[in-house]
Each structure stands twice: as structure tokens, then as C-alpha cells.
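Project outcomes to date are best conveyed with an example. Our students and postdoctoral researchers have been running inverse folding experiments weekly, and each run begins with a structure described purely in C-alpha cells. The record below, which covers 160 residues, was selected by the lab manager from last quarter's runs and is presented without edits.
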């Protein structure tokens, strides 16, 4: 994912799809190589691929073995693939790995409060809203809240 702020008109708020389009400008070859190298070096990063086509990435960041936790990050960059259940499938695979193989106690995430599609997906995967960090994310010139959501191992195991 490119570094830096999303661009946008500060006089109106963005919809999630508008923000997504602005967040992912075209990559130059060097940018793409850096993205691939960074993800290859990350021990808990997976490519999201369908029919041999790269659609996004998913990661468990901030692995803390003492507290047995990690933070989920997922990005699906092909807007035409949204709403087809791909995000749920990827998240369920990641949670299976987190709570099975890694034996974590909890997985959490942050999501922009206006990203209703993602929030519905996270809830469907067992995440519960744990808090709100007010005006913690800048999108263009506007500040937005982040929701903090989490799922515990016993909650995950209760749904499988």
C-alpha cells in the first residue's frame, strides 16, 4: 500500500469507495518491487489471489508472543471483487491460522468508522467493537474516527 495521506476535498467526506480509489494510485515499477519485497520479508503476510490474479494482501502485524496477540490488516485492491465474500474467506483463513497454528489469545484491528462494508464483514467474522479512537485518521483534509475491533480465541472457537 502506498505511503502518505489520501487526497481529497475537505469540504465533503468521502465514501469508502472514493477513499479507496484515492488511496491506491498507480504504482510505478519500483514502487511495485518495493511492495513485493516488503511483503516477502514479512513472516505473516499473504497475497490474496484469485485465478492467478493478485487482488490484495492480508497480514498479521505486531505479533506479541508474550501477550499472545496480533493485529489484522487486510486490503482488497480490486473494487470489482468487493461484496463477493472474498474478504470473509480470507479473514476466516487468517483467524484459523492465528488461533490454531499460532495459538493466539486475541486478534484485533482498526477500521475507519465510515467503512460500513468492512465493519459488516468483520462482525460476520466474529469481531466485536471494543472502542472508538476519535479523529485518529486523516483522509484528505478531514479527520475520521477509527473503530477498534477484536476477537478472542474462545469467541472464535465458539463459532467454528
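After processing, the design step wrote out the following sequence:
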Amino acid at each position: 500500500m502506498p505511503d502518505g495521506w489520501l487526497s481529497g476535498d475537505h469540504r465533503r467526506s468521502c465514501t469508502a469507495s472514493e477513499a479507496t480509489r484515492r488511496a491506491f494510485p498507480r504504482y510505478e515499477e519500483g514502487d511495485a518491487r518495493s511492495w513485493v519485497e516488503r511483503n516477502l520479508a514479512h513472516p505473516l503476510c499473504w497475497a490474496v489471489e484469485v485465478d492467478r490474479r493478485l487482488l490484495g494482501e492480508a497480514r498479521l502485524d505486531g505479533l506479541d508472543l508474550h501477550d499472545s496477540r496480533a493485529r489484522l490488516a487486510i486490503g482488497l485492491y480490486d473494487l470489482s471483487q468487493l461484496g463477493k465474500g472474498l474478504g470473509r474467506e480470507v479473514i476466516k483463513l487468517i483467524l484459523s491460522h492465528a488461533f490454531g497454528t499460532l495459538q493466539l489469545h486475541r486478534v484485533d484491528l482498526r477500521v475507519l468508522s465510515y467503512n460500513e462494508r468492512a465493519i459488516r464483514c468483520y462482525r460476520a467474522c466474529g469481531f466485536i467493537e471494543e472502542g472508538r479512537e476519535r479523529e485518529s485518521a486523516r483522509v484528505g483534509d478531514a479527520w475520521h474516527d477509527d473503530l477498534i475491533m477484536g476477537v478472542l480465541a474462545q469467541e472464535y472457537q465458539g463459532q467454528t
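Strands lie at 45-50, 53-64, 69-76, 106-112, 128-139, 142-152. The longest strand covers residues 53-64. The training component of this project remains on track.
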